Structures are given as C-alpha cells and as structure tokens.
Amino acid sequence: MELFDTHCHLDVEEFDADRDEVLTAARAAGVAELLVPAVQRATWPALLRLCAADAQLHPALGLHPVYLHRHEPDDIAALAAQVARTRPVAIGEIGLDWFVPDLDRDQQQRLLEGQLEIAQAFDLPVVLHVRKAHDAMLNTLRRYRLNGGFCHAFNGSLAQADRYLDMGFHLGFGGMLTFERSNHLRRLAVALPLDAIVLETDAPDMTVASHQHQRNSPAYLPEVLSALASLRGLPEDEIARETTATSRRVLHL
Questions:
Q1: pLDDT value for 82
Q2: Contact 51, 36 (CB under 8 A)
Q3: In DSSP terms, which residues pair with 171 in a beta bridge?
Q4: What is the pTM of this model?
C-alpha cells in the first residue's frame, strides 16, 4: 500500500536535525512519494537540492501569502526564471489568506495573480493556500487557463468544493480529519467523490490527533488514511490506491 503526501514542508528547519530519519519513518509507514512546496524565494535552492537527491520527492516553487513581508518586488520574475531552469512539478504554495490580521489583501491578490500567470505560461498545476477567501480565490481562478492542482487543507463549503472540482482542482485532507470535533470537515470528506480527494500532512504543522501539540510528520499520513476510510466505510487499501493515483495524475508523474 503506497501513499502520496501531497503537502509536506520537509525542507524547513524543523526537520534539519533528523530529516533523514523522518523520511525513513515515512517510507516505513507506506508514504512512497511527497510533494514539497516552497513558501519563499530564499528556500528554493535547498528545496530543489533536497528533491534532486531523491526521485520520490517532488518540488513545487512559489511565494506563500503569509510571508508577504519577506517577498521582494522582483520575486515574481525570479520565480519565472527559476521555473524555466528547473521545471518543478507545480507552482506553490500560493494563495490568499484573509485569516491572518494585517496581511494586505491587495498585495496578496497581486502576488497570487503573478504566480497564476506563471503557472498558466508553463502549463503547471498549482498548490493553493486559502483561508477565509474561497470565493475570492474561485473568482480569480476563473480568469486563468490552469492545469488544475490542489486546494490544500480545504475547509470550505460543499458548493465551493464543487466549483474547485469544476476547474480541475482536487482537495487536500490532512490531520484535522483525525479529530472527532472536525464535524464540518468530516461531512465534506464523506460527501465529496473519492476521486476529488488527496491526502496530505502539512508537516511540520497541522498534526494528527494522536500527536496533538507535537511536530507533525509525513509518517503520520496513514492516520489520515485510516480516518477517511472509517468515515467512508471503505477499505484503506482502496482509498490509498485511489488517492495516490489521483495525486500522480494531477502532477503528471
């Protein structure tokens, strides 16, 4: 049984002390492949080196809205040049975050649009970060011809989910699904078609219930699988097979 973690920040400093051990544990747990999305320009070189050393680690390059204060005016041009040189499998993590206070929404919008133009130009899928801004995101996506992608940590409405699916996007479910109190998320996980769903950890963040308040790990992805299988009343191997195939298909692997 092979799993695909579609959102794991394996490159960040939280894993510097034991990255190899974390990856070994993930592989032992059945996590065969991981998508590693960038959050700022300064991290691109190390992320690319990490993925170049392991064929089962796949890079996405982007500029995260939460790090707006770290981005420079020429970062969009730098992203386009980097994508042309290295051809990552996706553009990400990009998006809109209307949850964090004092993040300028107009600047976020411009940053998002610049990166969507790059995704369109290079015909690459995108990895979306969206909090409290799904309608704004969906209205923006309508203006581009995109090659689909993932809406990471989706927690919108079923109607919004349907709009993402109509645009060729798939929805990421992670550690929050393992918490019994996540009633809305659990209802979504049952209501959506299985081929709309991909699995993720967002490690080192958004950990599973059994490791609450601890660093998240890609090795915990089977717990997300188990929660989804239990909610849908399906065998784990069926969900693993379907979500892994979907992940690879979206990323053209």
A1: 98
A2: yes
A3: 151, 197
A4: 0.98
Q: In the chain, which ranges are E strands?
A: 3-5, 31-37, 57-61, 90-97, 126-131, 149-152, 169-173, 197-199
Token look-up 């690319």 returns: 48
Rounded CA separation 83/14 (Å): 26
Number of residues that this document lists for the chain: 253
Q: Which of 135, 98, 91 is nearest to 113 (CA)?
A: 91
- Tokens for 84, please give them: 């042309």
pLDDT digits (tens, 9 = 90+) for 32-77: 999 999 999 999 999 999 999 999 999 999 999 999 999 999 999 9
Query: CB atoms < 10 A from the CB of 22, how many?
Result: 20
Question: What pLDDT score was predicted for residue 1?
Answer: 87
**Regions of the chain short of the pLDDT cut 50:** none
Tell the CATH superfamily of the 3-250 domain: Metal-dependent hydrolases (3.20.20.140)
Q: Which amino acid is at 122?
A: F
Report the run of H or E that residue 47 belongs to, with start and end. helix 44-52
Nearest to 176, CA basis, from 206, 146, 151, 197 = 206
Q: Which amino acid is at 146?
A: L
